Each structure stands twice: as structure tokens, then as C-alpha cells.
Amino acid sequence: MLEHLEAVESIEAAVKAKEADLADFVQSYREKKETFAAKEQRERQAVEALNEKKAQISANADPKIITIWGEVKKKVRGLAVVPVQQAICMGCHMNIPAQLFNELQRFDELRFCPHCHRIIYWKEQG
Predict the structure, then answer these.
(1) What is the pLDDT of residues 89-117, one digit of tens each?
(2) Which pTM does this prediction carry?
(3) What does the buried/exposed string (b/e) look like for 34-61 if buried means 16 or more CB atoms within 10 Å of the residue's CB?
(4) One domain for residues 52 and 2
């Protein structure tokens, strides 16, 4: 009988230890959840601010350019506007023709990569 009582007591002690571990885990979980909720809220605010800035820029930009940008954005994955460095499109990492690279440096009209069809611009080194 004493052996069984000692076994019960040891099991009860183990249960209490596990309950304490569970309480610690639950507390840690709640703290992490609150941290992630706060981070999510900050990220949502940042996205809203960027969307507002995008709307302001779009309102001031030429509608034709915005339409072209939207069409390019639908066609390609990732960025629709990329720089060209040393005659290489930074969107697809392909060389662009020399004549196009020279025309690109004039900044007189929109240019498109002949390979990935993104809007490209010349990014001066330095």
C-alpha cells in the first residue's frame, strides 16, 4: 500500500511539474502572440502608408505611363521597372543590344528590355 501511495505522490509531483511547464509555455505563447500581433499592426500601417503614397504618385503621373506600367506588371513577375547596368538588364540579367543601351542613356522615352519586356532605365555607375 505504501508503495502505491509513493507512486501516486511521485506521479502527482510529475503532473504538477508538467502543469507548471504548460503554464510557462502558455505564457510564452501569449507573449509571442502579442509580439506578432503588434508587428502585424505595424506592417499593416506601413502598407497603408505606402499605398497612400502610391496613390498620390499615380494621381500626379501621366495616365498613359501608369497604364503601360500596369500592363508590364501583369506580364512579368517581380519588378516592372528595372535598371540597366553595364548593358545588362537587372530584371532578366541578359545583355541588351548596344544601340538600345546608347538610346537608353538619352532618357528621351520609355524603353523596354527586348528579352523580359520590363521597363528599363540607365543607371549610371558611381
Answers:
(1) 999 999 999 999 999 988 888 899 999 99
(2) 0.60
(3) eeeeeeeeeeeeeeeeeeeeeeeeeeee
(4) yes
Distance of CA 57 to the CA centre of its chain: 20
Regarding whether 104 and 79 lie in a shared domain, the answer is yes
48 Cα distance to chain centroid: 14
Which DSSP string corresponds to 21-40? HHHHHHHHHHHHHHHHHHHH
- In the chain, how many domains are there? 2
Which cell goes with 108? 528621351
Q: What is the mean pLDDT of the chain?
A: 92
Q: Which domain holds residue 106?
A: 63-122
Query: Torsions phi, psi of 96, nearest 5?
Result: -100, 155
Where do runs of H (alpha helix) occur along 61-107?
Answer: 63-75, 98-104
